[in-house]
């Protein structure tokens, strides 16, 4: 599979999360994919990734992801995303505030047989928590 096709699979996965489209993720993620940065209690595999998607979209309905940069080499794709939504449900233990939230994430994915087989990610969640008033401080760019 070409680097362009790998980039396309990754972009389509980000778009599917933005739409909350689990059916689209079924075609893009290997059933036994490994999420190397799961949230606490997240089940394994593709179903676990979809569980994460539903959870984040409950907290931030209307969440959209803008792919800012994407690079592919071999079977790997790296992307920088800006996620944006409105805090309408509990997020990281913080009750809904109605405030807009924007944060960045960096992903590295490995593809096998045209599907995402492994996913690594780091998001600037401390920035998101500051935006909803849950945290104050000077470390605005910390990633977890």
Short précis:
The protein is of the alpha+beta class. It has a single domain, classed as Roll (Nuclear Transport Factor 2, Chain: A).
Could you explain the architecture of this structure?
- The protein is of the alpha+beta class.
- The protein has helices at 3-19, 22-28, 45-59, 125-131; strands spanning 29-35, 64-73, 76-86, 100-112, 115-123.
- The protein has a single domain (3-131), classed as Nuclear Transport Factor 2, Chain: A (Roll), CATH 3.10.450.
- It contains four helices and five strands; from the N terminus they run ααβαββββα.
- The longest helix is centred in the first third of the chain and has 17 residues, at 3-19.
- It is globular and about 45 Å long.
- The protein starts with a helix and ends in a 13-residue tail after the last helix.
What structural class do helix, strand and pairing data support? alpha+beta
Fraction of residues in helix: 25-40%
- End-to-end CA span: 32 Å
Order of helices and strands: HHEHEEEEH
Strand content: 25-35%
Query: Low-confidence parts lasting 5 or more residues at pLDDT below 50?
Result: 138-144
| Average residue-wise pLDDT | 92
Strand order of the largest sheet: 1-5-4-3-2
Number of strands: 5
Number of domains: 1
Helix segment tally:
4
Broad shape: globular
Q: Write down the Rg.
A: 15 Å
CATH architecture: Roll
Main sheet characteristics? 5 strands, mixed
What is CATH's topology name? Answer: Nuclear Transport Factor 2, Chain: A
In the CATH hierarchy, what is the class?
Answer: Alpha Beta
